[in-house]
Design brief:
Elements: E1 2-8, E2 11-18, E3 21-25, H1 33-43, E4 50-54, H2 60-63, H3 66-73, E5 77-80, H4 84-89, H5 100-112, E6 125-127, E7 132-133, E8 141-145, E9 154-158, E10 162-166, H6 188-200, E11 205-208, E12 214-215, H7 216-221
Length: 222
């Protein structure tokens, strides 16, 4: 199994490839289709290999190029039912800040918001609170509902313990200085419960949308 990090604007998208196919996690900020295409060329992956696009949640920096990438690959797009309308209408809310810096940074995002345009796209696979297996798409793992950062946040947990968590954790300046929980969350208490769920299910290595991967125990100790 191969894991490729693909920077798409403010975020990292992740491509997981096995012999039977590939799954893309997240779609970056708006206007990243060309960047995505060049990245695929660079790693030697064809658009036809991508069998599924999983969106970890519906904030603008994760769904911004979803429609373009969906059209490029022809892959179905999966998203939790609580946030599907954010992509299908192109109207995603900004999450509340839960730390002092999070509140300041949210103010900066609010100033930018009039200039952010999200192209609406239909959601093909509507996820619920149960598990969704990725085995039919060639990937040994499943999607788990991990709310807290947003009501429909999900994580992709592979059988080997690698977990792709969207914004359930962050590890990148200027959002944070070290691996930790998000500075933005609809429900901070639920963030902790979602982390406990991932630990119980065997998460070992965390792949955040913002920053480099880190061992799950780092966050557990904090």
């Amino acid at each position: 199994m191969e894991i490729f990090t693909i920077p798409l604007g403010f975020d990292n998208a992740y491509l997981i490839r096995e012999r039977q196919g590939a799954v893309l996690i997240d779609a970056g900020t708006p206007g990243q289709a060309k960047t995505f295409g060049k990245a695929l060329d660079g790693i030697g992956v064809s658009t036809a290999e991508i069998k599924l696009i999983v969106v970890t949640h519906g904030h603008w920096d994760h769904i911004g190029s979803a429609r373009d990438i969906k059209e490029m690959t022809g892959a179905p797009l999966a998203m939790h039912e609580a946030e599907r309308s954010w992509l299908e209408t192109g109207k995603a809310p900004l999450p509340p800040g839960v730390t002092a810096w999070g509140k300041i940074f949210r103010g900066l995002l609010l100033a930018m918001s009039p200039f952010i345009r999200i192209a609406p796209a239909p959601v093909d696979i509507v996820l619920d609170d149960g598990y969704f297996s990725l085995v039919p798409y060639g990937i040994p793992g499943r999607v788990i509902h991990t709310p807290g950062h947003s009501p429909g946040s999900i994580s992709v947990l592979l059988d080997n313990g690698e977990a792709f968590v969207g914004d359930l954790a962050m590890n990148e300046f200027p959002l944070c200085l070290q691996p930790g929980p998000p500075n933005f969350a609809d429900d901070p208490a639920m963030v902790r419960k979602s982390w406990e769920l991932l630990w119980e299910r065997g998460a070992k290595m965390i792949y955040p949308a913002h920053g480099k991967p880190f061992p799950a125990d780092l966050l557990r100790r904090r």
